[in-house]
Amino acid sequence: MKPDNPNRVPIDVYLSFVSSLSGNRMTLLAGVVVHVATCLAVAAKTQSSVYILLSAAFLLVFSVRMAIFRQFDRVDKAALSRAGIQRWERILVAGAACTTALLGIASGYAIFVVHDSFAELACIAVTMATMVSVVGRNYGSRLAVDLQTFSCCLPMIVCSLLALDFYRGVLSIFLIPFWLTTRAMANGVREFLYENVIARREITIIADRFDTALNNMPHGLVMVDAENRIQVVNRKACELLKIGAPERLKDRDLGAVLRYGARYSFMDASQPELILRQLTQVAEGNLSRTLVHFPESLSLEFSASRRADGGAVLIFEDVSSRVKAEQKILHMVRFDALTGLPNREYFGQLVQEYFAKYPKKNGPLGFMVLDIDEFKHVNDMRGHVTGDHLLCAIAARIKQACGNAILGRLMGDQFILFFPRAKEQASLDREIRRVHAAIQGHYEVDEVTFLVSLSAGYAILEGDAFAMDEWSVKADLALFESKSRFKGGISGFEREMDGRYIEQQKLKADLRDAVSAQALHLVFQPMFRADGSRIECAEALARWVHPTKGAIPPDVFIKLAEDMGIISDITRFVLFKACSECMTWPEHIAVSVNLSARDLRDADILSVVADALTHSGLGAERLHLEITESCLIDEPQAVRAILAELRARGITIAIDDFGTGFSSLSYLDTLPLDIVKIDRSFVRNIVEDNRRLKLLRGTVNLARELGLKIVIEGVETDEQLALLNKHRSTDLVQGYVFSPPVPSQNITLLQQGIGRRTVQRRRNKVA
């Protein structure tokens, strides 16, 4: 790297070299004193007035150079261009060259004119010394070195040769290598310093960048030596640990710094040693990283690595946000978002932790499941927001009443409780019943008072092993027993329930096989005109005869099918079978098929119905589809859209069991209906109870005002039929008064029998 051309030298380095020409001014003062004194001494010895003039010239040049230096000092160096720096270089070099030229002239004059040994020795000695000083003072400018060495040596060489003295001529020739050597030395010094200046400049830039990166990195960094003394620490580390300014921590012991921070900041007194101990484990490879929690919700994650010299590099970051997010996620995973109670999985974990904490403790354990009675009606009547608020209020009361029991939310409107070991079963039984009684009653939510009852089932066990599924099954069996008796009741598990549960599971398996094998069969209950003169439709009813248990009631196996999720398979079977059977009946008789809530949850029922009609060849006008109000509880808009599509295809839509729900009247106006089938509960006492008859007639009149056809279900006596006909309260009658459910072939026979009776009545009238 040779800065032979100023244009190749960075301008700041070039300026520093040129500025060095005006430096070391005390050496200039010493030099001019020596120069003047030497000239005066030579003048006194030789009586030559030339040296007096040279003394005056040295003083004049020195004065001019000092004036130039002061002017250069006043120049704004930052504003100088490269050309401006070159101009100042030439000015400064010219002054220096004048001095060396005077020295060369003094030496050459002594050699060629004076011929005095003292004069020659004094002048040449001072000149040579000045040439050597050029290396140390004017190395920064190649031009200065060249001009000064040239102006010194040239007069002496020329005068030595002009003296025509052989030995002086040889000596003068030796000045040439001296001149070149001096010049080379100055250039070498300049090149060496230039390389070091550039290297230092690059190191400074790198150091500045490193310092900037170090102090702007989001991580804290501490570098320690083998004795655990701090060598490097950035601002982020000082901020996170609150240990003062970085410049004050150099060569301080890290442990002492941390202990100081513990004494005067937020850190606990025990944490410095904990940090150092864990960092040692991390640095030795026993831990990959360590997390330390500080007060004020600060969490720092540390990692460390050993250096080859025995020191270590410690890096840490603020992970408080991540820790909070992880804690929030963990809370969301473990706890129910609505009530804040442990969910089913975390409830099981808490119970397992109890067993791990008290492995040798003896005594009975309790497990209870709570179910809010008719909670669905709260959502239907008051909305889900109020329902959620009620759930939270119930959860809070259960939590307050359950004492040291572990509480969780099982699902929906069900809660689960684990009661730790008690001394005896009787006391645990009393505690469980006390909790159940404490949570019943009135709840004030959204300015509405709700009378809430909760059915409960519990199991008291002695086993040490916790099996969540097994215990929940036993409690569920007890809960089912409670709900089957009366609302708000509580029942403990008994072994007989287990047997019934096993039987139910076997029955479910048999039902699944029967549905797969299409082992169900259909019967049909006809719907007659009110005067009994004609069958208009017949409702298809599925029946199941078990190979060993005999006939299974429809309400039993249909409920099982809904629980098992195979009710849609039964619906498909009934649809295909009913449509095919209907094709064997007289053309005016339609068939009616019931749809479940599950059938209407998606649009697949549209393709199933279309396939059944296509497969059988039955016209869409001869197919009636019946729905209940329960079908509308979930996703009512989707159900309405499906029903509207079916009705648009020519299929008749009927609402079954009308009057048993809570919002039946609103359905008459909003649903795409053709027929209303009024539930048998409206007919049961109409002969004896005039109010029941009025209620029935009012409902019928409302339906007829909406253009709907009326079917009365459950008509069993002639008196009921006569009363309905008297008040013209129905269009069709379905019930035992005309016919129970019959096989498919009997529908045609019944219609033929009606026809024969009609013909006979006409003959009797004619006769």
Which features does this protein show?
EAL_sf; eight-stranded mixed β-barrel; 25 helices; alpha/beta; EAL domain-containing protein; 767 residues; 56% helix; 16% strand; five-stranded antiparallel sheet; 21 strands
Would you mind describing this structure in some detail?
The structure is a single chain. The longest helix is centred in the N-terminal third of the chain and has 51 residues, at about 165-215. Helix 24 links the parallel strand 20 and strand 21 (about 730-735). The protein has 25 helices and 21 strands. It has about 775 residues and is of the alpha/beta class. An 8-stranded mixed β-barrel has the order 13-14-16-17-18-19-20-21, surrounded by 5 helices. A 5-stranded antiparallel β-sheet has the order 2-1-5-4-3, with helices on both faces. A 5-stranded mixed β-sheet has the order 7-8-6-11-12, with helices on both faces.
| Major sheet details | 8 strands, mixed, barrel
Poorly predicted runs of 5 or more residues: none
Strand order in the sheet with the most strands: 13-14-16-17-18-19-20-21
Oligomer classification: single chain
Radius of gyration: 56 Å
Which structural class matches the secondary elements?
alpha/beta
Q: End-to-end distance, in Å?
A: 143 Å
Mean pLDDT: 81
**Share of residues in helices:** 55-70%
Number of helices: 25
- Global morphology: elongated
What percent strand?
15-25%
Report the strand count: 21
